[in-house]
Write a sequence for this structure.
């Protein structure tokens, strides 16, 4: 999918010794590629907001000065480059200010595609701010039904509200609630895009490498187990939950999904079929063997599609 070699970031990124040892064990021969892509500029991407403009109309507006390369797993998504220029600022485009496009990383578009909400459903985005996936969910719902966009940090509600307004979203209620205060078994679909250690995003956020530690991973995994269980509790029988992170840590990904499956006998992992280069899910890590169905999880590294690294799991809540 990616053409040519990624352009290296001039600033040296210090990969901690403990991190390198851990990730060489995780990735094996893929580690050097992972490090190379994590130390390279990320390609800029946009998602067309079909609540305000069609894909064809947006392409017509931009095609004279911009090159748009389709993202295979999201028909509204495009990698974007300015013709004849290396440096450019998409944020200054009138189309961005008008809400015709959303600047969103290509891998970040995957969870809403997998959840696939439809018009008229009741949907929850449990960790919504700043709203990239929320606005994508509302777009698929065609502003019909109810989308609850929740966050637990009031400072994050402002950018969420601004993005909802800019994108013309009218079916969404932004709420500031502890997840325990949301009504159980009341949603057709739930997205849990969990806070994580972010080791798939080093190329976009260099501070990720400075902040990483085994202790951080353990703390995140504990919070993620709580969030995914709460999301599952809020789901109606027969409904679908998508759990996603932008980290490569098995402890925060497959281990969390395995824990949920073992704790809830009415949770069933489903296959994810997308036009995307992917790696095998991790089924054993640090002496622990995960639930056999975790092989159905989607795991991608930065080198697979020249994107961020991402993890996605699709879980069905069986009827009693």
């Amino acid at each position: 999918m990616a053409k040519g070699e990624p352009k290296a970031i001039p600033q040296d990124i210090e990969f901690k010794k403990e991190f390198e040892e851990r990730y060489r064990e995780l990735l094996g021969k893929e580690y050097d590629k992972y490090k190379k892509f994590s130390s390279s500029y990320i390609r800029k991407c946009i998602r067309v907001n079909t609540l305000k403009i069609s894909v064809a109309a947006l392409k017509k507006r931009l095609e004279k000065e911009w090159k748009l390369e389709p993202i295979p797993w999201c028909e509204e998504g495009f990698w974007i480059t300015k013709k004849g220029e290396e440096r450019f600022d998409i944020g200054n485009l009138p189309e961005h200010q008008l809400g015709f496009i959303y600047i969103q990383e290509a891998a970040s578009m995957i969870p809403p595609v997998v959840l696939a909400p439809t018009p008229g459903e009741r949907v929850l985005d449990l960790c919504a701010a700043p709203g990239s996936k929320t606005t994508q969910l509302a777009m698929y719902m065609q502003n019909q039904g109810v989308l609850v966009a929740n966050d637990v940090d009031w400072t994050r509600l402002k950018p969420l509200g601004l993005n909802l307004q800019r994108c013309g979203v009218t079916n969404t209620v932004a709420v500031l609630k502890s997840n325990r205060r949301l009504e159980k078994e009341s949603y057709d679909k739930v997205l849990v895009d969990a806070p994580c250690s972010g080791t798939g995003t080093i190329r976009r956020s260099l501070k990720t490498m400075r902040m990483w530690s085994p202790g951080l991973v353990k703390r995140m995994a504990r919070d993620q187990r709580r969030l995914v269980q709460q999301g599952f509790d809020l789901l109606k029988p027969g409904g679908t939950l998508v759990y996603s992170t932008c980290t490569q840590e098995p402890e925060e990904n497959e281990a969390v999904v395995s824990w949920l499956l073992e704790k809830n006998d009415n949770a069933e992992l489903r296959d994810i079929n997308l036009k995307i280069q992917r790696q095998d899910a991790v089924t054993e890590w640090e002496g622990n063997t995960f639930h056999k169905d975790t092989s159905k999880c989607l795991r991608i590294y930065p080198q697979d599609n020249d994107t961020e690294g991402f993890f996605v799991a699709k879980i069905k809540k069986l009827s009693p």
Summary: The mean pLDDT is 94. The two ends are 43 Å apart (CA to CA). The chain has eleven helices and 14 strands.
